[in-house]
Write a sequence for this structure.
């Protein structure tokens, strides 16, 4: 049977880049992009989908004979703290609907995006091991930690092929960030290219794991295309690429824009950053399915600025 792919949250930061990439690999007709909002620039098959409604998800799976689901819809860490109960409800309900609809309708494979937000203050800060126990501090992190356990449960109990990555902060030029704690880094590039100073909501020493969008999307597709027997972790894989703090990012940008300035005004997001690792250990992903990042801070900065220069010209 030919693959038919459903993406939820297809207009989000990662979802929209992933949709374009999957359309390129599998063909535009093989991809059904869904979201609760429509983007005028979208090209391809789009359907409105409120993933909190089980019948709507099941309807789309049946109508299009869906074989793979990438469930990208979620409320991120900083926005989540503004509305904890709604975030728990949206993030968990949508994923449980996806899992159950996938199981009942013979979907082959499901992708669940987890996050470094699953770790809490108890975890070692550097090279945090994948299997360290999870005590998240945000409702977003709690929803991702519980999602990982549900993924594992559906795999062990029903044999549903659910795969998951713990993303670091994702930085890309294609889309605007949507309410995360690591989003300062994306914002900083935009301000630098526009020739403006940037007021950062984290302090200059807040070091966090980050990844360039190209690497994040490639990791996602490589994981989903890996042979099932190579996937040994059914909760979620750590993937690492680079780690830096705002001062190091400023320095990297200043190599291209020497006058770029960052002003530091930490707010509630600093507490979230303080509870997350500085760097994570991704040796399991490297060992099991060959994960390897391509971009470091310097290479990412060069590429981001090249693309944003075109955008703002
Ligand atoms: C966020 O900052 O909330 C996200 C994440 C690290 O999951 N980018």
């Amino acid at each position: 049977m030919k693959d038919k792919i459903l993406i939820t949250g297809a207009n989000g930061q990662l979802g929209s880049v992933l949709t374009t990439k999957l359309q390129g690999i599998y063909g535009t007709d093989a991809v059904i992009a869904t979201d609760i909002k429509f983007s005028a620039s979208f090209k391809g098959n789009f359907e409105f989908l409120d993933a909190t409604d089980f019948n709507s998800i099941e309807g789309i799976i049946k109508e299009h004979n869906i074989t793979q689901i990438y469930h990208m819809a979620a409320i991120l860490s900083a926005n989540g703290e503004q509305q904890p109960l709604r975030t728990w409800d949206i993030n968990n309900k949508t994923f449980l609907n996806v899992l159950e609809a996938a199981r009942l309708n013979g979907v082959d494979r499901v992708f669940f995006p987890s996050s470094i937000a699953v770790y809490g203050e108890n975890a070692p800060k550097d090279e945090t091991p994948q299997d360290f126990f999870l005590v998240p501090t945000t409702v977003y992190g709690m929803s991702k930690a519980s999602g990982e356990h549900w993924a594992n449960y559906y795999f062990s109990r029903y044999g549903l092929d659910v795969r998951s990555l713990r993303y670091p902060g994702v930085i890309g030029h294609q889309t605007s960030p949507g309410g995360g704690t690591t989003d300062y880094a994306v914002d900083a590039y935009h301000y630098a290219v526009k020739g403006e100073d940037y007021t950062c909501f984290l302090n200059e020493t807040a070091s966090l794991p980050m990844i360039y969008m190209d690497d994040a999307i490639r990791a996602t597709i490589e994981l989903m295309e890996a042979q099932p027997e190579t996937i040994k972790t059914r909760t979620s894989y750590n993937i690492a690429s680079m780690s830096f703090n705002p001062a190091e990012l400023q320095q990297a940008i200043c190599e291209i824009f020497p006058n770029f300035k960052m002003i530091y005004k930490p707010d509630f997001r600093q507490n979230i950053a303080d509870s997350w690792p500085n760097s994570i250990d991704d040796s399991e992903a490297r060992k099991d399915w060959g994960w390897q990042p391509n971009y470091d801070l310097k290479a990412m900065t060069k590429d981001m600025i090249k693309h944003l220069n075109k955008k703002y010209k």
Remarks:
- The two ends are 45 Å apart (CA to CA).
- The pocket of 2-amino-3-ketobutyric acid is lined by residues 76-77, 115-117, 140, 167, 169-170, 180-182 (CB under 6 Å).
- The mean pLDDT is 97.
- The CA atoms of residues 121 and 275 lie 5 Å apart.
